[in-house]
């Protein structure tokens, strides 16, 4: 096991600015690209990350600390962000993600104020018993999963363009 | 085919700053982590990217434009950066990568001054005939491959820590 709260927070802290640096200056062709029908483009991934700041990790942490294993926490709708009708710019999205993430890291530090809290358990509707330390680890790796997804989506766009080099490019495997 | 020179340059431009945002504030545990013996940690990936700025993409572009298919370009040593003895800080590495990348994008724009140049062909020592457009596409996707690799390495460190969530985290698949 490698989990350490401060190190997990290092991952959580960098994500909004890293994604802004990654994507803010890419033109439409990149931002509307996906891996095919039913998959997300980079804008939809950011919307999902914003949705998770609102309804996933910190709400679940609060739920565990209040309910323990007595009640499974409500399932998270992974597709909620696809039904949003409001028009927002990419800049507004990055700004919202950064604001929510900063607030949520502050809440995390407040709620997990001792090592004992990390061992508290809750009940995941599909996975059963989970620990706070697993939830926080998952929050960090969830960021990484979506950085990886965005990277795969961008690379996919040039799959044919790289010609014979395709066999040397791991991201296209 | 999706290649467009300006769009490829958008990818090339963001990489040094994105990696700096991603990694500059991560502690040693993250930066020395790898996927096991013989695989690279994030610092080694940055050293490889620096090495490629010096000896891979722009030198190969220049070689193609000078030699055409008459002569295969010299193979690139993918492991050269592992034999460097100089001690450098992470900050010095990011700074060098940014400087070299900025210079190389300027050279790219100078060398590829028309669509015809994109169709010129050279000879890769292992892959045979390659086009300039494929080389430039590959340069961009090569950045993405290594962003993806770094992301996988970071995530791997928490494989056990995420507990039962491992099955929902694509980057650990």
TrEMBL record, chains A, B:
Taxonomic lineage: Bacteria, Bacillati, Bacillota, Bacilli, Bacillales
Source species, domain of life: Bacteria
Name of the molecule in the record: DinB family protein
Protein species of origin: Halobacillus salinarum
Gene3D superfamilies: dinb family like domain (1.20.120.450)
Boundaries of every DinB-like domain copy: 12-150
């Amino acid at each position: 096991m490698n989990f350490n709260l401060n190190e997990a927070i290092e991952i959580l802290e960098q994500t909004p600015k890293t994604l802004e640096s990654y994507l803010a200056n890419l033109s439409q062709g990149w931002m509307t690209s996906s891996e095919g029908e039913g998959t997300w483009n980079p804008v939809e991934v950011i919307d999902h990350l914003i949705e998770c700041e609102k309804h996933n990790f910190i709400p679940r942490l609060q739920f565990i600390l209040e309910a323990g294993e007595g009640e499974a926490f409500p399932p998270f709708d992974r597709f909620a962000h696809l039904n949003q009708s409001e028009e927002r710019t990419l800049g507004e999205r990055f700004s919202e993600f950064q604001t929510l993430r900063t607030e949520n890291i502050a809440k995390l530090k407040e709620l997990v104020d001792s090592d004992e809290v990390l061992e508290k358990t809750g009940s995941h509707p599909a996975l059963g018993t989970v620990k706070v330390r697993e939830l926080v680890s998952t929050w960090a790796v969830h960021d990484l999963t979506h950085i990886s997804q965005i990277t795969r989506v961008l690379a996919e766009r040039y799959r044919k363009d790289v010609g014979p080099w395709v066999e040397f490019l791991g991201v296209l495997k």
